[in-house]
Amino acid sequence: MYIEKNIPVLISSKxxxxxxxxxxxxxxxxxxxxxIPNEAVNVEVxxxxxxxxxxxxxxxxxxxxxxxxxVGTHTVPLPAGCYTLDAFSEAVEFFLSEAAxxxxxxxxxxxxxxxxxxxxxxxxxxxxxxxxxxxxxVAIPFASNAANAPIATLLGFTSDKTVAVTNGRSDVLQGDxxxxxxxxxxxxxxxxxxxxxxxDAKGDPSTLLLSVPISVPLGASIAYQPSEPIFHECxxxxxxxxxxxxxxxxxxxxxxxxxxxxxxxxxxxYQLYVDDDTSAALHGKGYxxx
Length: 290
Hints:
This protein folds into two domains: about 1-55 and about 185-290, Sandwich (Jelly Rolls); about 65-175, no CATH class. The protein is elongated, with a radius of gyration of 26 Å. It is mostly beta strands. The mean pLDDT is about 85. The protein is about 10% helix and about 45% strand. A hairpin with a 5-residue loop joins strand 2 and strand 3. The chain has three helices and 23 strands.
């Protein structure tokens, strides 16, 4: 008869042996390797639970929003993080409130619900710490300044924008393409180095282990448990498993980097053919009759 062994493993970006600084990949190294007998058959692996938060960085590395006026060049620092249009606007507004030579409400960013295009309303006349400020020109080098590349992509600006300020105001600047700054991934995929035989969205061989639908707003918790775990062929059959590497990716295989910790439970199972006497000896030691 066949008996089945099931080994649950919990991988956490917080407690993993090795974890990337952006929390996209972590490696759990076992102090005692998981031993898969040579006689084992149907060695498989599945993910049975996932928990994390919808805090995936759309600006993965520190960058900036750079613009120039007739009084100089100004740089708004943008630390790596998960930015909505509101969050980006807050960063710009804070910078302006601290800059004595610039109006506190120089920029107003809005996104059309109908077209997804971001517009920037420039108001060159305003107060800064009670002092009236009048600007003559404003330019945003979205394309020519590399520091602007991450936020320019999210806002949908592919060309530099320059305007003259007349009577304190300028024309509204329109984005060139649909903005993605408020978009969030609809699906996250968990990959591991144990997975074998999966296929990605392009039909290519993949290490995909679990797809997790994201239906919660930014910042909310993601708790997912598949009703029927899908077991994949294990790439480490008939060997000792010394570690597991888990990575979060989007459907297009690009890396997903959350700024909060996450964990996934992985189940490794295999079957052994034994006689009745052996099965009796193994009963109650983590093996189940099959």
